[in-house]
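Example (one chain per record):
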Amino acid sequence: METQYYTLIEKQDFYEIIENKYGELAIFIDARDGAPENPVLQFDGKKTALLKRDAHLAVRLDDIHEETVAPLAEAEFVMIVELKGKMVERVYGVPVDNVEEIVFEGHQTRADELVKAKSKDELLKSFGAVKVWSSGSAK
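Predicted structure:
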Protein backbone atom coordinates (compact mmCIF):
# COMPACT_ATOMS: atom_id res chain seq x y z
CA MET A 1 0.00 0.00 0.00
CA GLU A 2 1.25 3.50 -0.90
CA THR A 3 2.19 5.78 2.02
CA GLN A 4 0.07 8.94 2.23
CA TYR A 5 1.92 12.26 2.07
CA TYR A 6 0.08 13.41 5.20
CA THR A 7 -1.90 11.78 7.96
CA LEU A 8 -3.95 14.75 9.18
CA ILE A 9 -5.75 17.63 7.45
CA GLU A 10 -6.50 20.71 9.55
CA LYS A 11 -9.07 23.13 8.13
CA GLN A 12 -8.01 26.77 8.46
CA ASP A 13 -11.31 28.61 9.01
CA PHE A 14 -9.98 32.19 8.69
CA TYR A 15 -6.88 33.28 6.79
CA GLU A 16 -5.68 36.23 4.75
CA ILE A 17 -3.88 36.39 1.42
CA ILE A 18 -1.77 39.53 0.99
CA GLU A 19 -0.21 40.93 -2.20
CA ASN A 20 2.65 43.45 -2.13
CA LYS A 21 3.53 46.04 -4.80
CA TYR A 22 5.77 43.48 -6.57
CA GLY A 23 2.88 41.03 -7.00
CA GLU A 24 4.27 38.63 -4.38
CA LEU A 25 1.71 36.79 -2.26
CA ALA A 26 1.76 35.90 1.43
CA ILE A 27 -0.79 33.68 3.18
CA PHE A 28 -1.40 34.30 6.89
CA ILE A 29 -2.56 31.21 8.81
CA ASP A 30 -2.59 29.98 12.41
CA ALA A 31 0.71 28.57 13.69
CA ARG A 32 1.18 24.80 13.92
CA ASP A 33 3.60 22.81 16.10
CA GLY A 34 7.04 22.12 14.68
CA ALA A 35 8.91 23.39 11.65
CA PRO A 36 7.60 22.57 8.17
CA GLU A 37 9.52 20.01 6.08
CA ASN A 38 9.49 20.33 2.28
CA PRO A 39 6.16 22.22 2.26
CA VAL A 40 4.18 22.75 -0.94
CA LEU A 41 0.89 24.52 -1.67
CA GLN A 42 -1.48 22.70 -4.01
CA PHE A 43 -4.09 24.94 -5.67
CA ASP A 44 -7.05 23.71 -7.73
CA GLY A 45 -7.45 27.03 -9.58
CA LYS A 46 -10.91 27.53 -8.09
CA LYS A 47 -11.61 27.96 -4.37
CA THR A 48 -9.44 25.45 -2.51
CA ALA A 49 -5.75 25.11 -1.64
CA LEU A 50 -3.94 22.52 0.45
CA LEU A 51 -0.69 23.40 2.22
CA LYS A 52 1.19 20.13 2.59
CA ARG A 53 3.27 21.29 5.56
CA ASP A 54 5.17 18.06 6.24
CA ALA A 55 4.75 14.29 5.99
CA HIS A 56 2.15 14.29 8.78
CA LEU A 57 0.14 17.53 8.45
CA ALA A 58 -1.72 19.38 5.71
CA VAL A 59 -3.68 22.63 6.11
CA ARG A 60 -6.85 23.08 4.03
CA LEU A 61 -7.79 26.57 2.77
CA ASP A 62 -11.39 26.74 1.52
CA ASP A 63 -13.42 29.58 -0.03
CA ILE A 64 -10.46 31.46 -1.52
CA HIS A 65 -11.53 34.99 -2.47
CA GLU A 66 -12.40 35.23 -6.19
CA GLU A 67 -9.96 38.13 -6.78
CA THR A 68 -7.15 35.99 -5.39
CA VAL A 69 -7.63 33.06 -7.80
CA ALA A 70 -5.68 34.51 -10.77
CA PRO A 71 -2.67 35.85 -8.77
CA LEU A 72 -2.44 32.57 -6.83
CA ALA A 73 -2.69 30.44 -9.99
CA GLU A 74 0.12 32.49 -11.59
CA ALA A 75 2.41 32.42 -8.55
CA GLU A 76 5.40 30.08 -8.54
CA PHE A 77 6.03 30.63 -4.82
CA VAL A 78 4.08 32.15 -1.92
CA MET A 79 5.19 33.18 1.53
CA ILE A 80 3.45 31.37 4.40
CA VAL A 81 3.19 33.36 7.63
CA GLU A 82 2.16 31.38 10.70
CA LEU A 83 0.63 33.48 13.48
CA LYS A 84 -0.42 33.01 17.07
CA GLY A 85 -2.88 35.84 17.49
CA LYS A 86 -1.09 38.82 15.94
CA MET A 87 2.42 37.53 16.67
CA VAL A 88 4.49 35.88 13.93
CA GLU A 89 5.67 32.36 14.81
CA ARG A 90 7.46 31.56 11.53
CA VAL A 91 7.70 32.62 7.89
CA TYR A 92 8.69 30.36 4.99
CA GLY A 93 8.39 30.18 1.21
CA VAL A 94 6.56 27.36 -0.54
CA PRO A 95 6.21 26.45 -4.21
CA VAL A 96 2.71 26.54 -5.70
CA ASP A 97 1.61 23.36 -7.45
CA ASN A 98 -1.42 23.94 -9.68
CA VAL A 99 -3.47 20.74 -9.78
CA GLU A 100 -6.72 19.78 -11.48
CA GLU A 101 -8.25 18.44 -8.28
CA ILE A 102 -7.15 18.23 -4.65
CA VAL A 103 -7.69 14.77 -3.20
CA PHE A 104 -8.46 14.90 0.52
CA GLU A 105 -7.32 11.80 2.37
CA GLY A 106 -6.83 11.22 6.05
CA HIS A 107 -8.62 12.50 9.17
CA GLN A 108 -9.92 16.11 9.03
CA THR A 109 -9.96 18.36 12.14
CA ARG A 110 -9.54 22.00 13.24
CA ALA A 111 -6.46 23.47 14.94
CA ASP A 112 -4.69 26.64 16.11
CA GLU A 113 -1.28 26.69 17.97
CA LEU A 114 2.12 28.45 18.97
CA VAL A 115 4.18 31.86 19.65
CA LYS A 116 7.32 34.08 18.74
CA ALA A 117 8.47 37.72 18.27
CA LYS A 118 7.21 40.03 15.50
CA SER A 119 3.61 41.32 15.25
CA LYS A 120 1.41 40.83 12.17
CA ASP A 121 1.25 44.64 11.62
CA GLU A 122 5.07 44.90 11.67
CA LEU A 123 5.37 42.09 9.13
CA LEU A 124 2.70 43.63 6.85
CA LYS A 125 4.61 46.94 6.91
CA SER A 126 7.99 45.34 6.13
CA PHE A 127 6.39 43.10 3.45
CA GLY A 128 4.96 46.23 1.77
CA ALA A 129 1.39 44.94 1.46
CA VAL A 130 -0.77 46.90 -0.99
CA LYS A 131 -3.76 44.54 -1.04
CA VAL A 132 -5.32 42.32 1.64
CA TRP A 133 -7.98 39.71 0.85
CA SER A 134 -9.77 38.17 3.79
CA SER A 135 -11.00 34.73 2.82
CA GLY A 136 -12.79 31.81 4.41
CA SER A 137 -15.50 32.21 7.02
CA ALA A 138 -15.26 34.95 9.64
CA LYS A 139 -14.14 34.03 13.17
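Caption: The two ends are 39 Å apart (CA to CA).
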